[in-house]
Amino acid sequence: MENQVIETNADVTVITAGELLSHWQGHRKLSRKVLNAFPENELFGFSIGGMRTYAALAKEIIGLTSGGISGIVTGDWSTKPELDYFDTTADIKSKAELLAAWDEVTEQLDTLWPQIPAARFAEVVKSFGQWDNTVIGTIQYVMDNEIHHRAQGTVYLRALGIEPPAFWERW
């Protein structure tokens, strides 16, 4: 057994860039459904245990997605629309504005994604000017962050007595 060669499939491509974008956009569609399920007054005012409101969490998702795709493609890690997604009192003040910003970033993602050359996914970048990571690692971070915050929103909705969208309703 000590000389046994174990074959693995570690180097097999299992997802294309287009499939990854589709996967990400599926998560974004579900996160938008969670956002849309909030009554406006609760969206900007309700939280549990000192956590941020879902409006603040959604702004972070918007900012990370926008800044992330822009940074990966252009090297400019700023957000479009420009917003301070950690400032809960500035920028976006209504559910309609939040949904419009969400949709603007969805379009930005669809526009910029095809501009990522295949080799770029393996390159190391200084993500958001903060830490070194591969492009694919940065994309995974942004998606994981969104899923994490969407889960918080789901808990908020349940606490408000609102049935959240099912987690598998990504399409």
TrEMBL record:
Q: Which UniProt keywords apply?
A: Metal-binding
At the top level, the lineage of the source is Bacteria
**Where along the sequence do coiled-coil regions lie?**
none
Q: Which residues bind a divalent metal cation?
A: 149
Q: Name one Pfam family in it.
A: DinB
Q: What is this protein called?
A: Damage-inducible protein DinB
Q: Which organism is it from?
A: Mucilaginibacter pedocola
Instruction: Show the InterPro entries listed in the entry.
Output: DinB (IPR007837), DinB/YfiT-like (IPR034660)
Tell whether Metal-binding is among the UniProt keywords: yes
GO MF terms on file? Answer: metal ion binding
